[in-house]
Write a structure and sequence with these properties.
Chain lengths: 270, 270
Amino acid sequence: MLAVGRELLIGRTLNTNAQWMGRRLARKGTRLAEITTVDDDLGEIAAGLKGCLGRRADFVIVVGGLGPTPDDMTLKGISKGIRMGLRSNEEALSLIREHYARRNLSTIEMTPARKKMATLPVGAKPVRNEVGTAPGVRLELEGTTVFCLPGVPSEMKSIFRESVEPEITKRLGKLYRKCISLKIEGIYESALAPTIESELRRHPDAYIKSHPRGIKEGKSRIELDVAMVSEDRETAEESAVQIVREIKSEIEAAGATVVSERGTAPSGRK
Amino acid sequence: MLAVGRELLIGRTLNTNAQWMGRRLARKGTRLAEITTVDDDLGEIAAGLKGCLGRRADFVIVVGGLGPTPDDMTLKGISKGIRMGLRSNEEALSLIREHYARRNLSTIEMTPARKKMATLPVGAKPVRNEVGTAPGVRLELEGTTVFCLPGVPSEMKSIFRESVEPEITKRLGKLYRKCISLKIEGIYESALAPTIESELRRHPDAYIKSHPRGIKEGKSRIELDVAMVSEDRETAEESAVQIVREIKSEIEAAGATVVSERGTAPSGRK
């Protein structure tokens, strides 16, 4: 994910878009490999895109900077990054006109600011935005599919659900993810470390991660996540449950307490 | 900022550390140039660091992955990225022992998991952590100062305030930033765009950014930020106020309403 916008760099806006998308992809058994946030600047956007393309990822999702104002320069930045010119796109113009028509604004003038939202890198296709004005954009580049989505959360989510997720699902195949979270009291992370290490040796495909949550009433508190991804629903479920059983028995033997255990049903493609 | 941790990529954790640090730096008249989040993986951390060093930034702040568990591999990843070995650091060991002593745990055993937190890339120095166990780490590399901080927010903030911020302030010089935020109703962003454009032509050093906030009761709502940074307090203040005055008169002439105006006192080094 390449997030574009100075508001993210100066802490004006919390990057909840990245969390939403990351969570959604994790539930499908895949994940964001990297999240990079850059400024509203042509050179920064171009370099950020090149960095993402260099990973040879299946998908790059660019978020933000598609609107009509001067700071919205994602498409120009991408055009610079891939050395392809910008061209007014008829399909994108129709989508924008349709949007205004739905809002009973059919008489609105197609000013340069509005036309900018339909000026795409050569070879790009617009993607319908059911919520806002600026269409999303889709590009195929060196085996990577690049989607550009608006930064407004409701628009980003709508286009992601409608047009991005189905593509990802198609490419992924069927995967299930089972995650179990434990809340533990009375053990330091440094004392838990050897247990996690031996579990990871036994189950190298597992994801096991501890999150220290401070000391309360003299007791160290930790949240521990165990997750397994598999093409087989039962395998994901059983492996996660087994790892948790093993960890619980070790930490209870060490005098710590598991105060809560919360599992998600194995999620994945339906 | 290089943030390390899969919990950020899968949406388990919202990157509030980046927002906190971004906001704090913005108030000083500077900013994060890029925020990159990578997985708990040696190759990813090494590549992420190399990308950051390639920017020739004054500072790179690495956050997360300093703890005792197997997923905590930031120092090893950095060692790989800069091709410097890891070595047990006596000063870091003392800091960890001191931390345990403060908690009346002086008899705690120095297990491999605990020693790992004191195993630093050659040439690195530990930085005192007043809140948690793992010391921060400081490295000078090709003109860039690299700080590694724990991901636990209270520890990150404490080390940033105590040891990172004074260094940044020293390098920055004296800067003031004045920011004014307007809430506007009754104008579309695409209609506001030409006003912003002409203001940016008149004041090329200004930061002017609109954030669309949807339609309420048929009226388009926008938040507009205007910020100026200057070595001179009055210049920052007066320029921001003047730009806002010009924008207000234009948008009110277009029939829109400024429903609120909120300014921050010019902030900067004391």
